[in-house]
Amino acid sequence: MERPTALVTGATSGIGAEFAQQLGRSQHDLILVARDVVRLEAKAVRLRTEYGVNVEVLPADLVTDHGVASVCARLADSAKPVSMLVNNAGFSLVNAFERNTIDEESAHLRILAQTPMELAHAVLPGMLERGTGSIINVASVSAFIPRGTYGAAKSWLVSFSRFANLRYGPKGVRVTAVCPGFVHTEFHERMGANMRGVRPWMWLDAGRVVRVGLAANMAGKAVSIPSRRYATLMALNRLLPDRLAAAAGNRGR
């Protein structure tokens, strides 16, 4: 039997790298997408060596039309079907909305919401034709808190995942939004955020986030919050007025 193929965006670091690692371990062939060709090639060599799977590298800047088009073309290639799409690539902006340029905000919205939508749209027809497939959208608990445009974009991603899982799940295509809190990765360091105020209990391990997210997708769940403590906090947040929910969400900064 042919191995299933998973395409992972933002695959060279953090949660994306962990998805690639765990999917390679479970004998998925892989397509790794990121901007850094050197890191992509190095990651591909390690995965081929460790797990004996086929690994393609697809360098692409997913903020650009050209980069997104190249990945969409690969996803839509019926001769080499993709059985799982992991939309993980993204970044956050440190400054408040009014202090960012509109170009910065547009690129931010593009990679967090528009790009995952375009990639899902490209891969769905083949999955529906085959009657099977998985789409995992890496979102955030910020989606449930009125806190900046990062949370707003992730809220769109969660809502889209809920709709898509409801519509396409019965047709064999499971769609899941994975919503972690703070995760030990390079993400916050790369955005230049000061994380010294984040309490130790709020940090999650990337390996657990990915394991729980994959299990949730297999179970057909539309939303995965891979931590009981965060799930409890988000449930309580729904009961708070926006002003208090936003203040609670900002306590880690």
From TrEMBL:
It comes from the Bacteria. The keyword Oxidoreductase applies. This is Short-chain dehydrogenase. InterPro entries: NAD(P)-bd_dom_sf (IPR036291), SDR_fam (IPR002347). GO terms for molecular function: oxidoreductase activity. GO terms for cellular component: membrane. It comes from Arthrobacter alpinus. SUPFAM superfamilies: NAD(P)-binding Rossmann-fold domains. The keyword Oxidoreductase applies. It holds the Pfam family adh_short. Belongs to the short-chain dehydrogenases/reductases (SDR) family. Keywords: Oxidoreductase.
